[in-house]
């Protein structure tokens, strides 16, 4: 087994990425994003960059350039390119992850709050990214909240009904699956409200402690029917509370009556 990357390895790779980017005339600016922009979470934090191009027309050429240069310099264990999102992900043999996003410098925008401009030939990128924050947050989290509310209010009660039936039948793994689905819906809503990334609970540790306690209370801890019923009731109350200002097809009273019919 090879050695896992060290802090020094990460810094050396960071310096190499900066050097490679500066070699390309079509790259106007290089921006570090994520935790590295403010000091890294810890010694195992990865590297995240945004490459700002002279124009969108240069994107295929520049993405190929970066891929070739990084592959020549490092033993790449895994690579994925999402052309629709203009993102490359590298995992080196030492398990250091490098994420690189691409976009035209004229449309520079900070999709995440933490960023640091490494260099900028235009002198405009930092101002563009700083000015974009409020708009981006509203677009990402505001629009996402609307979509999530519409989806959650039409489905969470349906999955809770299935969970109740599964518990009553002794199909506990089925019940766990239904409850996990609803729990993730609840976490999505919290992420939207607090403008945090909820996928895989990515930023949920930044929630207020009392909100994190609510999430912790939704985890299925055993296949004991009594514990699972407690979880069903808890998720029911939390979701209806979160959606109290919105119309839900099935009322909380009706859903609770459905649960009570099993007892």
What does this structure look like?
It is a single chain. The chain is of the alpha+beta class and 263 residues long. Helices cover 51% and strands 16% of the residues. It is built from 7 helices and 6 strands. The protein has helices at 7-23, 59-73, 125-169, 172-194, 209-216, 225-242, 252-260; strands at 27-33, 47-53, 76-82, 87-92, 97-104, 115-120. Strands 3-4-5-2-1-6 form a 6-stranded mixed sheet, covered by helices on one side. The longest helix has 45 residues, at 125-169.
The SSE string, one letter per element, is HEEHEEEEHHHHH
The Rg value, from CA coordinates, equals 23 Å
Helix content: 40-55%
Write out the strand line-up for the largest beta sheet, numbering strands in chain order. 3-4-5-2-1-6
Largest sheet: 6 strands, mixed
In CATH, what is the homologous superfamily of the largest domain?
Answer: Nucleotidyltransferases  domain 2
CATH topology name of the largest domain, in short, is: Four Helix Bundle (Hemerythrin (Met), subunit A)
Query: Unreliable segments (pLDDT under 50, ≥5 consecutive)?
Result: none
Number of strands: 6
Q: Tell me, briefly, the overall form.
A: elongated
Which structural class is indicated by helix and strand composition? Answer: alpha+beta
Work out the strand percent. 15-25%
Rounded mean pLDDT is 91
Give the termini distance in whole angstroms: 56 Å
The total number of structural domains is: 2
Number of helical segments? 7
Can you tell me the CATH architecture of the largest domain?
Up-down Bundle
């Amino acid at each position: 087994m090879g050695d896992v990357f060290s802090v020094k390895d990460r810094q050396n790779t960071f310096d190499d990425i900066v050097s490679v980017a500066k070699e390309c005339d079509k790259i106007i600016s290089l921006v570090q994003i994520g935790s590295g922009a403010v000091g890294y979470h810890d010694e195992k934090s990865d590297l995240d960059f945004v490459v700002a191009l002279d124009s969108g027309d240069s994107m295929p050429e520049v993405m190929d350039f970066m891929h070739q240069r990084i592959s020549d310099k490092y033993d790449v264990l895994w690579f994925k390119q999402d052309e629709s999102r203009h993102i490359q992900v590298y995992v080196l043999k030492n398990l250091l992850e490098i994420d690189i996003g691409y976009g035209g410098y004229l449309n520079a925008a900070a999709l995440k709050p933490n960023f640091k401009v490494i260099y900028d030939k235009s002198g405009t990128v930092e101002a563009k990214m700083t000015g974009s924050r409020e708009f981006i947050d509203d677009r990402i989290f505001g629009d996402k909240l609307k979509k999530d509310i519409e989806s959650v209010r039409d489905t969470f009660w349906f999955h809770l009904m299935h969970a109740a039936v599964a518990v009553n039948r002794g199909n506990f793994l089925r019940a766990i699956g239904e409850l996990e689905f609803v729990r993730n819906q609840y976490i999505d809503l919290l992420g939207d409200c607090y403008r945090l990334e909820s996928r895989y609970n990515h930023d949920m540790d930044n929630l207020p402690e009392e909100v994190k306690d609510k999430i912790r209370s939704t985890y299925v801890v055993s296949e004991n029917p009594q514990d699972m019923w407690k979880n069903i009731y808890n998720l029911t109350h939390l979701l209806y509370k979160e959606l109290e200002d919105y119309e839900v097809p099935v009322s909380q009273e009706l859903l609770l009556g459905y649960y009570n019919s099993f007892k």
